[in-house]
Write a structure and sequence with these properties.
alpha+beta, about 210 residues, 8 strands, four-stranded mixed beta sheet, four-stranded antiparallel beta sheet
């Protein structure tokens, strides 16, 4: 049972970006072994970077050098996400060799929904994101991810387009309120036989 769930976790890491819906203001490259996002109007690593990397050993180092030069020329900070499915096996060492630093290590949790027992907090209300509640979502995201005012303004101006993409795709976004205060947000990306929580954020002031 554990092995099956772990296989799902690895699959989720790889597949989460397969249904990525490019926004009008983004440049997205989606291949079987590579997913890259560029947002020219948003100088933030949250909205620029590599989200899937499964490269042959003989080409990996050259691709890293090429990618660093690409974002440097555009004057955009970026991130490079790695996980169980990332290739080559020494991808992390190669990234460090070329100047990247480890910023975060994220834990992956997996469960069969029917077996979860989660006690609801009566003081917390969960609401699906709407255009009317976008500022609440932005407040949480900006606080948790330390996004710059410029990036938040960019997202704010483009939120309606983003919201239309979310509605058409296989994802939903939610905000948690403690009383009238927005304190957390998260999204769910639905795949064929599993769902993946993405973009979870909790305002530091509410921890």
């Amino acid at each position: 049972r554990v092995d099956v769930l772990m296989d799902k976790l690895k699959l989720a890491h790889r597949a989460v970006w397969e249904n990525l819906q490019p926004a009008p203001y983004t440049e997205v490259i989606i291949k079987d072994n590579w997913v890259q996002l560029t947002t020219p109007g948003a100088p933030s690593a949250v909205m620029n970077g590599i989200f899937r990397c499964e490269l042959a050993s003989e080409v990996a180092e050259a691709k890293i050098i090429e990618t660093i030069a690409y974002y440097r020329n555009k004057k955009l900070p970026f991130r490079w996400k790695t996980c169980e499915s990332s290739k080559p096996d020494n991808i992390n060492e190669l990234l460090v060799k070329h100047g990247l630093i480890l910023k975060d290590e994220l834990l992956g949790f997996v469960a069969a929904p029917g077996e979860l027992q989660i006690e609801a907090n009566p003081e917390v209300e969960i609401k699906e994101v709407t255009l009317e509640s976008k500022r609440d979502w932005l407040i949480v995201q900006a606080s948790a991810w330390k996004a710059s005012p410029e990036v938040i303004d960019f997202i704010d101006k483009n939120f309606e387009k983003e919201f239309e993409i979310i509605k058409k795709g296989s994802a939903k976004a939610f905000i948690a309120y403690l009383g009238a205060t927005p304190v957390a947000s998260a999204g769910i990306v639905f795949h064929k036989d599993f769902a993946y929580f993405a973009g979870g954020a909790t305002a530091p002031s509410s921890l």
